[in-house]
Amino acid sequence: MPETHLASPFSDFTDQVFQNLRRADQRRWAGAYLAGLLITPGKKSVRRLAGAVSASPTAVQSLRQFVSLSPWDWEPVMDELTRWARGHGPVSTWAIGRAVLPKRGDRSVGVHRYFDPASGRTLNCQLGLGAFLGIGALQVPVDWRLLLPAPWTEDAQLRRRARIPDEIDHRPLWAQALDLVDTLEARTSPTAAPVVADMSDDPDVALFLRGLSQRARDFVVAVPQHLKVLPVGERTPGAPEPVSARAHISSGNADSVLVTAPDGRRQHTQLRSVLVRLPGARPGATPEYPYRIFTEILPESRPGSMWITSLTHQRLDNVASLATHRTGTTTAVAGMERHFGLLDFEGRSFPGWYHHMTLVSAAYTYQRLTHRPVPRHMPCCPAPLPRNSQERLHLV
């Protein structure tokens, strides 16, 4: 019996975001996997997803093959997801956030020992870097990069086992973050949305800041306390010596500002700020515009988060309010973990990891921006994927 296509907001969504998948069976299984993520309670194993969307005994195998082996390109899906999300409200920020995916053993692609600042523990995990659009009070994920430590790209056997494409190489955190910014730039119409990111544990954050400045992209970025900066406006003989941001900010002004979070909550906060420049400009280059570093004044002289921004022309309360968007990415990742199966996938292969992250991101973004249920009687039982899908993996 031929399948009947039932019109609904969910089917409209899947029609748009999966339209570039080349085969009709791939598009239907993408919708089935997405529906499973949205309606399956508890753990989102492939077996439980299949049971939620199909009575067929072959559904488990087909769903597993679709996410792990089927050769479909996730980038056009993320392009359409970005376009769909932008249609649901003005974008206030581009936020860069992290997903820490704990793993057992050493078989999952990119797994390594990583010190997680949020938990204060060293974990055996995969580390994903995500791009999030700030829409209203929400941050929704529209792209990801898997951080691959050098051993994963230098060992031919590991590359083969994880099906890492030849063109993928090890890139540091700051470079991956800039790549996400470049991808959003290419996907979207010109926008003044600033980049908000927590790079407070990245020793090479100055390279990220330079890259944003070269792209004329405004930013509000959490940086290490020891970031080297140059004072602005001091008349001293010779070139001034760089000092740490923490040491220099003690000379800044203290202000009481009213900070507004994305959800509308407001709070009076004591901040200290000062204008700075970054060292390392090329000799003879035109002097760059100054930046502003700022930090919250906490009791007992405890250090607060150190931020740097290019938005020196904006009021400090507005800039500090943008910094609160950092928590939105943490909230989004926690929501994807609890309700959308972010952690419920082995992620052994490079394509499989990106497929799963794309599908989880699509499910989260759809639910958070529409709050609509998935039709319970949606026909989610396409024919099994061809057995020779694995033979075409070179197309991924």
Overall outline = globular
Structural class per helix/strand content?
alpha+beta
CA radius of gyration is 23 Å
How many beta-strand runs? Answer: 12
Q: Could you tell me the strand content as a percent range? A: 15-25%
Number of helices: 13
Low-confidence stretches: 1-5, 387-396
Task: Give the end-to-end Cα distance, rounded to a whole number of Å.
Answer: 32 Å
Rounded average pLDDT: 87
Described by strand count, sense and barrel closure, the largest sheet is: 12 strands, mixed
Order of helices and strands: HHHHHEEEEHHHEHEEEHEEEEHHH
- Share of helix among residues? 25-40%
SSE blueprint:
Layout: H1 9-17, H2 24-39, H3 46-53, H4 59-68, H5 74-86, E1 91-102, E2 112-116, E3 121-135, E4 138-146, H6 150-154, H7 156-162, H8 173-187, E5 195-198, H9 205-214, E6 219-223, E7 228-231, E8 243-244, H10 245-248, E9 253-260, E10 266-277, E11 291-296, E12 306-309, H11 316-323, H12 326-339, H13 350-370
Parallel strand pairs: 1-5, 5-6
Antiparallel strand pairs: 1-3, 2-3, 3-4, 6-12, 7-8, 7-10, 9-10, 10-11, 11-12
Helix pairs in contact: 2-3, 2-4, 2-13, 3-4, 5-13, 8-9
